[in-house]
Structures are given as structure tokens and as C-alpha cells.
Model the fold of this input.
Amino acid sequence: MTTRSRIEWTESTWNPVVGCTKVSPGCKHCYAEVMARRLQAMGVPGYEAGFKKVKVLPHRLAEPLQRSKSTLYFVNSMSDLFHKDVPDAFIDQVFQTMSAAHWHTFQVLTKRAERLAAFTAGREIPANIWLGVSVENRRHGVPRIAQLKKVPAVTRFLSVEPLLEDVGELDLEGIQWVIVGGESGHGARPMHPAWVDSIQRQCEAQRVAFFFKQWGAFGADGVRRSKKANGRDLRGRVYDEMPAHA
Ligand code: SF4
Done:
């Protein structure tokens, strides 16, 4: 089953893999972990072994092929496709589905950028598959950009979320899209407006589509409110640019 998503930059989620383990500070309040705990408590199939047990779900492989309406899919909102416990042969099958379902657009996002680069080396990636990495800070996130640039995709993107510090000057050559967002939920870490401004200005200067997803738990004024109350407005403007898709 694919699921209609409330994530602002996609339409649906498709989870042929569930479960993951944490790799960097951006994982600290992992939404998928919280959700998996709930689903496990509800007895939902696929989540019996808990979040830390990575599970491939071959019966979900064909799901996008069964939907005829062109859809923007976020692949593996409940996992990381390039986790070491997902076999190459299974990742291959996920890519085969995405290639065959050419009327959809697939957004694959990972924190395992080295494996993404190694897996895609020498392959042809169809234009309907967008490949991206998470960039939450300088130490763990920024080095992933160099790995992403090696990837032979038409559309490469950065998910700068949760933005945890000023990530400095970014060379965005070869990057088509940047999403920025703050953290929400229990224990959320604040995001400083100057960090967001810096990335937005760099995107504008380097002609990269910029999408501001949300402030999260802390507004532009640093006050804690609901995510909804803090909104998506950056200096009086909503930024929801994204690359063209079917
Ligand atoms: S890589 Fe993604 S899914 Fe995996 S633990 Fe980190 S935030 Fe969660």
C-alpha cells in the first residue's frame, strides 16, 4: 500500500523497506522511529520486530505499478534504502520498479551517501528518479554533497532538515533542488533564521530551486509554538520551488 503523505514536498510515500539505525545527529529525533513504535504497538504487519530491525518487503515492490495516476513518491519514509542491511539485489528491484513506473516521479533520500554513489556508479538513472542526501550539519551532512555529485542522476537534491547549524558556503553545482526545514516534536532543536537565509541566498545566486518546508517547533522569532502556528513563511514569502516533474 502506498500512502498519501502530509510531507509538504511530496504526494505519497512508498515503503518497500522498513526499519533503520541512526547514523548522525539528524537522526536524533527520527520521525520514522516514533511512527514505527506506534505501528508496532498497533500490531501493523512489517513492524513486529521494531524499528532497528531492517526488513525488506518484496510484496510491496509492485505497488507503484498498480497506480495509474502520475504521482510524486517519497521512497522509504520509514527507512533508508541504502542501509547496509538492504541487499544490493533488493535495491536493484526497487530501481527496476521505479524505471518501469515511468509515469511517476520517485524521490530517494539517504544519509548513506557513500553507498548511494557506489551503487549508482556506471548505471543509467532514468529522469523520473530523483536522488538526494540529508545535510543537517557541517561535519556529517556537507560531505554527503560530494558523494551525491558523483551520482549519474538528472535531478539531485539536498534535504537540509533538520537544519542544526550554519552549514556555511555550499558549492551547489550539479544540484537541482534544496529543501530546508526545522525540527518539530518533543526535544526539537531550534533553527536560526540566519542559517536558512544563507542557504536561500546561495540557492538564488546559484539558480537552484529552493523549498522552505517549515520552521518546526521554533518560529523565526525563536519562540516555541506548534509547527502549524510557526508556518512556512520566510521573510514574508513562501518558497515552494521544485524541479519540473510529470
Ligand atoms: S537515516 Fe533516516 S530513517 Fe534512518 S534513523 Fe536516520 S533519520 Fe531515521
